[in-house]
Amino acid sequence: MAQTVAMIGLGIMGSAISANLVKNGFAVLGYDVSEAARAAAKAKGVELVESPKAAASRANVLLLSLPSVAALDAVVAGAEGILDAGRGGLIVAELSTLPIEDKLRSHDALASAGNVMLDCPLSGTGGQAVTGDLSVYMSGDPAAAEKIRPVFAGFSRQQDHVGPFGNGMKMKAVANMLVAIHNVAAAEAFVFGMKMGLDPALILKVAGNGAGGSRMFEVRGPMMVKDDYPATMKVAVWQKDMHIIGEMAKAVACPTPLLNTSAILYDAAMAQGRAEQDTGSVCAVLGEMARLER
């Protein structure tokens, strides 16, 4: 019998994760507040449930992919939340990028009811999630993490246990710092090359294979070539992630000059009305600054 896994949150990441789990033989229960997200998940073979409580009543493993602290609090401890199921022995893997102290609040509430919560943020874009090209930063109870590693393997290419609860978010902050900087660096290089008259497709092919290539150049370069930015990570959502990294850096008195510089471009993308576009749209922001005609 296929293992039953519940996916709470069926947005860009959650929908891709649940679809891959279905493809890999898991029985997947799904919940989201969005009717559109629910309908899309159902079309991919996910069995819908009416609440996190209903999911926790039927599955022993729950994956949470949520947009905010408020959503996490509601899913865990709100009306019809996980705790309302009155069960113990659950393993809840929190996959979102949220402050550690807020995750700890849910961790403690679940632990008091006899459940284990893991902090397991993901590295990768929504596009990478579709192809299973994600890394999972597992942190928390090592035995629980190992027990559900096969679930993580059902939607990711790499799963690393990085230490005590909260270390997952610390590692995610490091990864996202690199993403933020490399994305802007790729955009700047594309605009520079195009200003000199180079074909952006040629830049992607040639420069991307050289010493200056990066994963962000590879993943978001095709968007920059087309000057089209369908969201795999919305600029508006990325603002939340950037704020979390900044607060974590302040807490340990660590200077982040490159991150701070890149933040200016994401703020400019918001100001230009690109909140719902992919973060690769910083290429268009720089293009406008450079008076680039495309």
Task: For this entry, give a set of tags.
globular, three-stranded mixed β-sheet, Rossmann fold, six-stranded parallel β-sheet, 12% strand, N-(1-d-carboxylethyl)-l-norvaline Dehydrogenase, domain 2, 294 residues
Helices and strands, with pairings:
Elements (H helix, E strand, L loop, with lengths): L3 E5 L3 H12 L3 E5 L3 H9 L3 E2 L3 H7 L2 E4 L4 H9 L13 E4 L5 H13 L3 E4 L2 E2 L2 H5 L4 E4 L3 H6 L1 H5 L4 E4 L5 H29 L4 H8 L7 H12 L8 H17 L5 H15 L10 H8 L5
Parallel strand pairs: 1-2, 1-4, 2-3, 4-5, 5-6, 8-9
Antiparallel strand pairs: 7-8
Overall mean pLDDT stands at 97
Strand content: 5-15%
| Number of strand elements | 9
Overall outline: globular
